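Help needed: design a sequence for this.
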């Protein structure tokens, strides 16, 4: 399997250091505040410093004072530590003290998840003890869930706690602190058994995903804690709730579509309690977050680490049954009457990240993942460039196994991928023309139908992956190359390469060049 070259590690600087540099430029070089800010930004960027979380406005000679998030964080931490006690009666979640904790938690979460959060909030929140306070809040709420598993108020409070922890963990500083304090192990062991509703299960998976994204330490700590069994259990519950309906005492499964009254015990040996009937929206949310978490655990995206354990993490997930569970979810969601294309995209992406070796590729194919992806490429997925891209990427990954290549041909994969190249090549050209007109007129054309959601870049990204999947299938496979020639795939690819929008897309051109495709000029008709 191909491995991307790791990105160079990013350096970071504190807000105080940035402000100090700006002030030095003013004091020592007699620059204006605007000139000092510009010079400081250029200086740090030349040194490879990440300024994404830095407030690039002039602080003034007296400094900025206390960050607004610090006060909210301190109020939240104080409320958790002193105003709420898990040793009291089960009615604690309805008490005034618990309501105060919820209020401060909501205020903190809203301040850091707003559309325009104050720069530098991550360091400010971590410095004020936000990670410790949020983890303590989750631990206390999880304890209440264990005392009264059927109390909706305790599950709602646990959901609030998980949401605020997940929000805090979007900051890089918080991820590192969370891992360094060895919280992943305690969080996994204490929280998952007490998540009884789809909302809390989804929030649990979201915490795992946010903490693991771009943080190798958190990924490794979660896998060491066995979080893969939790995620696979969640995936299995989502699939069973969708397909099995109510299970009778004799083991016969009803197809009435009604959710079962109880979940099957998780693989960690914890029996779940009742899940509310009619919670399809929350179930899909839980499935989506589980897929995102699986991707975060199996992606080597931490710029600070020279090596990644993504491969080992993917094998751990597959060993726990992730490939089979994802294929089952893939099948279930593809057959829904109201298909959620964005969810299918997430499932396909998660499957691709888990299928890291030949055995897992074979398992994914045998469990129906390949067949479903190709069926979607022929039908539903063509409504969305992103879904088509994800399905084509999955096929391309599976084509790395020599066992799967003949199956792609026999299942009509050549035709499906060629269809994707043709459809989205044309849409890319139309979208590029529309975008050019909109730049001139500064108006949006609302008459182009559902394809308006796919811009030229998204369409060409789908084309690139379809061509890449064709190339991977044809590699060392004469049958596939012969099929491509018979289906005029080479001509289709050549026509797509010649499109104005595709010429400017290096990825499309590169995929064609590395594949077993002839020179596009050789595919053009001979002129008399």
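Sure. Designed sequence:
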């Amino acid at each position: 399997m191909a491995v991307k070259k790791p990105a160079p590690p990013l350096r970071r600087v504190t807000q105080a250091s940035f402000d100090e540099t700006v002030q030095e430029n003013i004091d020592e070089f007699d620059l204006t505040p605007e000139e000092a800010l510009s010079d400081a930004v250029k200086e740090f960027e030349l040194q490879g410093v990440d300024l994404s979380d830095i407030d690039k406005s002039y602080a003034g000679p007296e400094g900025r004072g206390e960050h607004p998030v610090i006060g909210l964080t301190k109020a939240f931490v104080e409320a958790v530590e002193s105003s709420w006690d898990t040793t009291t009666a089960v009615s604690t979640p309805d008490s005034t003290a618990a309501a105060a904790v919820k209020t401060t938690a909501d205020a903190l979460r809203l301040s850091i998840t707003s559309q325009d959060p104050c720069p530098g909030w991550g360091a400010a929140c971590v410095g004020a003890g936000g990670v410790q306070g949020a983890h303590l809040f989750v631990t206390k709420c999880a304890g209440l869930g264990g005392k009264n598993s059927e109390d909706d108020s305790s599950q709602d409070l646990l959901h609030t706690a998980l949401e605020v922890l997940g929000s805090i963990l979007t900051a890089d500083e918080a991820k590192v602190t969370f891992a360094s304090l060895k919280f992943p192990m305690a969080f996994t062991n204490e929280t998952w058994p007490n998540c009884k509703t789809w909302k809390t299960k989804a929030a649990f998976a979201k915490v795992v995903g946010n903490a693991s994204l771009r943080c190798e330490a958190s990924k490794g700590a979660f896998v060491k804690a066995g979080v893969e069994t939790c995620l696979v259990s969640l995936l299995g519950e989502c699939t069973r709730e969708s397909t099995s309906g109510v299970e009778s005492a004799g083991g016969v499964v009803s197809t009435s579509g009604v959710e079962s009254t109880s979940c099957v015990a998780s693989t960690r040996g914890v029996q779940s309690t009742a899940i509310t009937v009619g919670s399809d929206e929350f179930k899909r949310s839980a499935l989506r977050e589980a897929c995102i978490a699986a991707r975060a655990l199996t992606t080597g995206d931490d710029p600070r680490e020279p090596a990644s354990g993504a491969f080992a993490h993917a094998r751990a997930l597959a060993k726990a049954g992730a490939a089979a569970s994802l294929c089952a979810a893939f099948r279930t969601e593809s057959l829904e009457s109201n298909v959620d294309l964005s969810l299918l995209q997430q499932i396909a992406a998660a499957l691709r990240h888990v299928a890291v070796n030949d055995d897992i590729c074979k398992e994914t194919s045998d469990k129906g993942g390949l067949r479903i992806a190709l069926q979607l490429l022929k039908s539903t997925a063509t409504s969305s460039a992103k879904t088509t891209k994800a399905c084509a990427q999955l096929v391309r990954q599976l084509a790395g196994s020599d066992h799967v290549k003949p199956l792609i041909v026999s299942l009509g994969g050549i035709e499906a991928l060629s269809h994707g190249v043709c459809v989205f090549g044309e849409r890319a050209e139309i979208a590029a023309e529309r975008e050019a007109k909109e730049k001139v007129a500064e108006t949006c054309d609302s008459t182009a139908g559902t394809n308006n959601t796919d811009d030229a870049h998204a369409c060409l990204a789908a084309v690139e992956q379809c061509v890449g999947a064709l190339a991977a299938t044809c590699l060392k496979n004469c049958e596939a190359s012969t099929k491509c020639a018979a289906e005029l795939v080479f001509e289709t690819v050549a026509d797509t390469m010649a499109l104005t929008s595709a010429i400017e897309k290096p990825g499309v051109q590169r995929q064609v060049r590395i594949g077993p495709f002839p020179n596009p000029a050789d595919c053009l008709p001979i002129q008399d």
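The chain has a mean pLDDT of 83.
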